[in-house]
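Hey, I'm writing a tutorial for new members on how sequence and structure tokens pair up, and I'd like a real worked example in the thread rather than a made-up one. If someone can provide the structure for the chain below, I'll link this post from the tutorial.
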Amino acid sequence: MYSFINKQLILNFPDKITNPHILEFQMSEWSFFLLVLSTVMIAAGGYIINDYFDVNIDRINKPGNMVIDKGIKRRAAMAAHMIMTTVAVIIAILVSYKLGLTRYGLIFVCSSIGLWFYNTEFKKQFLIGNVLIALFVGLVPFIVGLYELNLAANRYDVLAKAPFFVNFQKILSFITGFSVLAFLINLAREVIKDIEDMDGDEAYGCRTIPITLGLSAAKNFILFLLGVVIVMIGYIMKDQFSAGATLSFWYLLLLLEVPLLVCGYFVFKAIDPSEYKTPDLISKVIMFTGIGYTLVIYFSFIQ
């Protein structure tokens, strides 16, 4: 088992407690792996079914990048989606049951059902499809944190009370903040993709933000989301700087704040939908470096 050391969250332990500043992770590495595997499989199944239903739209938007109907038959794609999603949900339910958190298995069931309806119903509707897919992305870090935090809170319940003060609520707030940032960044990227795909989406009756409200409104919405994320990360940077967390501060500044500002600049300057390829690429980099921040957390607080 790993050890979790964070002096900001664990205070005032009496000398009689052995290893007073140490909390052990409650999930085994195997359970953690299976939960992550289940999440990845559901996401992969979602991508497959997305390509399945977008065959006609993709013929207009990206004819050179199509996989289904060119490399993989539609029937095989549907079978792959069904098998992958079913296996993923079964794994998640079994792990949840083993950990005594059976009700949380419903999150994976709802996610797989939601991805199906996203592609069949909500994707073509105004805003709801964007919000739904961004919500699923935001849930990824939240789910694993929710499992671990509930297990830890149950085991260390006495430590949450005076005079020990393990602030589980603060840990949950941190995980929630990470998930909210993932949600906002992905929502901005979804709207950027909608602008890039306007021609095909309009031809097949999609009611995306740029089609319904216009390119200018969609641009302003993206800039608003990026602005909110920049302010949120700026607040975190201020907190990290005050706490002397140098590695965290510079990582957030150079690998998140600066790319966000650059992305916003290209969105602001863009006029034609074809000019949104660069912001799309930068947003992918931001999402990758956002995931990479978990390594900073590990080496700063857990090692």
